[in-house]
Design a protein that fits this description.
This protein is α+β, with helices and mostly antiparallel strands and 152 residues long. The chain contains two helices and five strands; from the N terminus they run H-E-E-E-E-E-H. Helix 1 packs antiparallel against helix 2. The two termini are 17 Å apart.
Length: 152
């Protein structure tokens, strides 16, 4: 007969895996949808890197690319890509890039490669959190149940 301690531990581990993994899956889905431009009116246009802005990371430094592009309303904008890049990942000044922006707020623009990285990271987190949800569900589903007493 399985002990009640084993039952409680499997239940606890199941919930500890299931709840955080489920929440992570929801956040990953939201990040993936935003990186694909779902649910918002976005446009992709050609832009050009016109400079760099120094930026600090927690343990090192990098650069944000300053991109110039023309919005759908005819304005020429210069914005700093939100992704900090280092080494060979830094765009060269004058390099042509694709820029994606919200139609409502073109100042919130980013280089399309940055969006790809966000989408890739989101997909990996979604995959890992799905594994966590399945493992938690299995622990809850397959935990030992109390056995009925045998008939005499």
């Amino acid at each position: 007969m399985p002990s009640s301690t084993t039952h409680r531990l499997l239940s606890l581990f199941g919930w500890v895996l299931l709840v955080p993994s489920g929440l992570t899956a929801l956040v990953s889905l939201w990040m993936l949808a935003s990186s694909l431009g779902l649910g918002s009116d976005t446009r992709t246009v050609a832009g050009r890197v016109v400079g760099h802005e120094a930026s600090r990371l927690k343990l090192s430094a990098g650069q944000k690319s300053i991109v110039e592009f023309s919005a759908h309303d005819g304005r020429t904008l210069r914005v700093a890509d939100p992704m900090v890049r280092q080494g060979f990942a830094v765009h060269k000044v004058g390099e042509a890039v694709k820029v994606r922006y919200l139609t409502d707020d073109p100042v919130q623009a980013e280089i399309v490669g940055s969006v790809f990285v966000q989408g890739l990271i989101s997909a990996v987190f979604l995959l890992l959190s799905t594994v966590g949800v399945l493992a938690g569900w299995l622990l809850l589903r397959l935990r030992p149940r109390g056995v009925a007493p045998a008939a005499a």
